[in-house]
Model the fold of this input.
Amino acid sequence: MFELIDKTYNPKSFERDVYEKTVQFFEPYEKAGDVFVIMMPPPNVTGKLHVGHSLTYMIQDILIRYYRQKGRKVLWQPGIDHAGIATQMVVERTLEEKGIKKSDMSREEFINVIWEWKEKSGGLIAEQQKLLGCSAPWNRSRFTMDESMNRAVRHAFVRLYKDGLIYRDKRFVNWDTKFKTAISDLEIVNKEEKGILWHIKYNFSDGSGHITVATTRPETMFGDTAVAVHPNDERYKNFIGKMVKIPFTNREIPVIADEYVDMEKGSGCLKITPAHDHNDFMVGKRHNLEIINILDEDGHMENFEYVPEFIRGIYLKKARKEVLERLKSENLLIKEEEITHSMPYGDRSNTVIEPLLKEQWFVDAKTLSVEALRAVQNKITRFIPEKWENTYYDWLNNIQPWCISRQIVWGHQIPAWFTERGDIIVEETEEEAKRIGGPNIRRDTDVLDTWFSSALWPFATLGWPENTPDLKEFFPTSVLVTGFDIIFFWIARMMMMSLYFMREVPFRDIYIHALVRDEKGQKMSKSKGNVLDPIELMEEYGADALRFTLAFFSVPGRDIKIGKEHIKISRNFITKIWNAARFLQHKNVSFEHNIKDLSPKSHLNKWVIAKLKKFQEEVDLNIKEYRFDYLAKNIQIFLRETFCDFFIEALKIVDTEETKNTAGAVFQEFLRIAHPVIPFVTDHLAQILGITDTFINKSGVHVNELPNHEESERTVDQLIERIHVERSSGDISLESFSEELKKLGC
RNA sequence: GGUCGCAUAGCUCAGUUGGUAGAGCACUACGUUCACAUCGUAGGGGUCACAGGUUCAAGUCCUGUUGCGACCACCA
Done:
């Protein structure tokens, strides 16, 4: 007959095998049902699977497997993101380890090195996703820098430009002095830190004393074009309109009055450096001040016309030290005040971001945001949980122009050319650009923000701008599953781009899941050493145990705290399923019967079918409502309390043919229902038990096909209740229990 | 400064239209009698953060307070 189930549950021995046997079903294929589509958020090409990934992909896989079972035509579009700055960083570091400097290479050579690296290491995460059980059609996988994606990106850029929604402008950008590129507002993280507020003497030109300026950035004084006080500040009222001299260079600047100045802060007197501070820039604009830039792209002091000799060409931090020393020795430094303030850092470079006035490419996000807002307000796309709508609205309502140009090499090069006269030509191809601008045009070397291509993901992966059959069939998608951390980076931008180019929302539902933290609730990070490696966990406890745990803890609106212990508990539960199967096999239970055809006579069997029906209804609801925690709990309760604790125990006493057939049929249905959450063990057991249909693409019996057995359910529930009471009062009689059961079992 | 969330057993958390407080882990005791010690059975343990209010009835709804967290903004 069939092989015996091993005594011990050893997931390692069969998981890979089970996966490979079912790979053929991962492609979308023709079915009567509607399509169900999820765009897999593409992990970074540099990525390694972490627990957070496991959660997000596991949830998607549950949905995919569930709807595939239900007969829907399912597409789970996988892919990889080129992750511009992050990848360039990683590759640069590997080069440095080999003693090679990026600066020794041409742009083309360096790009080639990255591509080589991508070909070699970029497939790692997909292999790890397979270990987790992700049932995606991998041969459809897209890379955000594929030729087809590149085509889509160029097309999108050109259209937005010609429609006036992409433009070139000189304005403040966040300048990363380490990578020498502009970054978007979102790529900044603010860090609280201790700093010093220096009070500095600026002498009046007429020799009538001084005014005290407070600043945290004394080195920028050479770019000052005014000193500002509050118009109502009695202390300084008489000084307004006078001229002061900047130390060392003695350039003269006026004292001006502006409401922006806070009398309470610092000395109440503020130096205005329009080129290096957003607010100063605004003040400068109001007062028609000159804008003097004194920093170069690496953060060194430049503009020698204004910067004194002793700090020329020096990095700003060092320049600050030098300036302070000079101030001290010349008795211009009045006091040092310790303060805490937050400073902007680049999320990748971890260096202080300088606001610099630069010419960059921008997207008019304000205009695009209108439709994106409306779509959610009108519930065409809904957030689950709903509260994230507010986050989304807040950001879109206050949206700023999106700086999309990056001065790095790894990314989609902007399809713009400059003529010798400095005119800009934006076209999809070089040929077209040359046709317009002549042969001597020069292409912009900037590349696009990685999120620009990501924003096109839901339709670009399906063949857009071509109107392909895939695009027609699979767009818009059913649900986007992701964490709240990329609502701005990605979700909002996909909404904007989809609505602009496709005139449709990219997805109906947005399911926002929790963040995974360690047992103590701390963010997992390498430096803290509290990172749980999902690969190790799967190795030790099996992919199903990891999946089950993550589902079990994914309560909406609360972060997931897990440790190894939790995975172990899930593994123990799966062992319980395993042993239930062993028992049924041991009892020679048949799995050939379909539960629909059973029509049992006994209350016991009718009862278990009624419970199964309820379980099924619950599960359907849980999936619909994205309650994966309930889903896992329901699986556990049904198997443990209904099936093992009572039904199997009863089966030991009344092992009639009817009861055994019911056991086989019910267990089989259970395996099917649990399959989306724990695909490996369920499929494996099915194979051994000789259940001929594969679970992956066949749903079990529909809830409506199961009869109602409410009376039997009540009868047996009452019996169970009585047993509990008798047991707790101590006078349990096994014989009377058996008698009762036999009555129910006839 | 703005927004949102959380506070229930020693720990991690459920509690889905208000109706006698739940699970798992941990703990205690018992148990290896046809799956399962990666287990089973039983047990102890909670003023549901605090203060008001609505209600016949509040963990659940409303107001306020405290503590914790996240995000956004500002940041001389």
